[in-house]
Description:
The protein is of the alpha+beta class. It contains 18 helices and 9 strands.
Amino acid sequence: MRTSQLDLFGADFTADPHPELRRLRSESPVHHDPATGLWLVSRYADVRAALADPEAFRPDNALTAVTPISRPVLRVLARAGFSLPPTLANNGTDTHTGLRRLVAGFLTPARVAAFEDRIAELCEERLRTPADLHAELARDLPCVVLMEVLGISDVDVPALKAWSTASLELFWGNPSPERQHELAVDASAFHRWLTARIRAASPGGDDLFSALVAHGTPVREAAGLCYFLLIAGQETTTQLLSTLLDRVLRHPDVWLRLADGEPGLAAACVEEVLRREPPVTTWRRVTSRPVALSGVDLPAGAPLLLMLAGTGSDPDVFAEPESFCPGRPGARKHLAFGYGRHFCLGAGLARLEGEVVLRTVARRFPDLRLASPEPPPMLGLLSFRAPLGVAVV
Length: 393
Ligand code: HEM
């Protein structure tokens, strides 16, 4: 395996990770990356086995900054009272069940389904003369939807987006110390805003902050949970929408069938994009005891990078994985939303947003085309990958 050339933050890997992911799966399915210290696990069966066993493969490192944060920047965060104690994705303790149940109450299938018309309305409002579907549609729509789902009002959406994109880069990017400082200022402002909203919440309200207070969640835990949820619940869907629109517009025949209203096709396209180009490309776990994966022995305490994006193209599970084939058999077996105890709580909402947006845009603009066949500029973080623009004509 050509270890020296693998750069998880490199332009080549971001532009198209599939050649490297294919090589990893076949030549080195459990591969130590010296640059990050992570063990890259790339086969579907291994990734699923790790996700299915949260005792041996703990989630404690899910939100750890991959690029160590410098001391002066840690002081900026500490002054803001910033901390990410175990709450949801990074919680292997027994407080996880109660907090997960609390958040799941906002995302029941019935509550999510009730948002279908609202998502279509928000989409219509944003589509006058489309020029960049990322800036006009994908960037803000999931944030507006999430705030309404969680009952949170009086939100400055552009500010929240700036805070959350900065947070993604701080924890999953490879920023210089100077850049870390800028990002930490935004992350701290976000955390301070959340803490103030939680302190001001009354236990009788029907919004997320009130529910956390009524649950008796300490402010530090509540702020950490909201920090994760308000980022995870909309940045990932922004990424899904941009990827989805970019990918499907590359198949004009499929676009026309969507414009004609073919039943089930929009949902099938969402699944196919999640399988092949998932927005959450990797997720971390840490071993609690010595384990073996694909014949490789790992000690206790080994940090793993589960290559979700590679699992959707594992030929042992998906035939002809490189072809775009909406409606393929077993399409929903992908691991784009994880698996097991920490399975994504927002999968239903993200799927609905993808489906409604795709359907609405295609019906309204059946002749829409990408402005250029060239690959778009991409967001390329350790765990997140998506187009930063979807220019159309
Ligand atoms: C396309 C969009 C999304 C993708 C690809 C995605 C992906 C993921 C992944 C890979 C995990 C880790 C699962 C595991 O460890 O097994 C996760 C966890 C989670 N996601 Fe999502 N997600 C998306 C949208 C959302 C939305 C819209 C919400 C909320 C409204 C959300 C809330 C959560 C929560 C709360 C967890 C932690 C669950 C737990 O630890 O119990 N996600 N997501």
